[in-house]
Fold this sequence. Notes:
alpha/beta
Amino acid sequence: MVQQISLPDEAIAGxxxxxxxxxxxxxxxxxxxxxxxxxxxxxxxxxxxxxxxxGWFLVDAGLPxxxxxxxxxxxxRFGEGARPAAIIMTHGHFDxxxxxxxxxxxxxxxxxxxxxxRPYLDGSASYPPGDPSVGGGLMAxxxxxxxxxxxxxxxxxxxxxxxxxxxxxxxxxWLHTPGHSVGHVSLWRDFDETLVAGDAFxxxxxxxxxxxxxxxxxxxxxxxxxxxxxxxxRRSVRSLAALRPRLVVTGHGQAMEGPxxxxxxxxxxxDFDSIAVPPRGLYLEHPARAEDxxxxxxx
Length: 299
């Protein structure tokens, strides 16, 4: 990366002392919004504590091997046997769908995704390969080896409605934020200006294993080794910055809030090319797009 945008610790959302003692090991950033870090990625829980069966939603499904951690967090947060109303996928990269098939089957719940993301979730297509040439650290260097899917939850898979709503999730709407993947979505709640950004932008340098481990508060563009359309990624960041969010939780890194976060997001938006776009990369001149079929590798 050409630049990085550091943030003060005061911009980190949540209450570390309280969160450390929680049985569910989540970080609560609003009364009905919490997230749990699972290695290199976050999953988000939407719903009031104690919401009970079908009274909450899970956003993304973590890494392979983390099913028990997600289930225990859900049980401790929402109640014994409490299943989500649905799992909402921001996108289908390997670190976001690791437990999706197992969890959706165990919970017998629908999986919502953007229509352009469906081929990666119904078993019909794999992602374009990761791009280690973007540089930035070990995570990027290993990109060619990451699983590209697909998974198959076709029996439970449903497209997000065209009107921007999420069935059953009052107050939230989904936004198409492509670039990192063709069907990437973010979630936005108007009344308190809360944004679940997925990987449209992140708050750690995801290309670097050291940065991922340390989790210093920073503002970055989407993980470069998996971003296949930089023009679309730029537009997505600018559209999210224009919302003026008060609170953001991303797929990687810590949740952030307040003026320092907003200033950093504005800077990322205005200087996206110098901050987020790598100096070289497979998809800089040859983006993988849905309209020409290059985003999909048939299985």
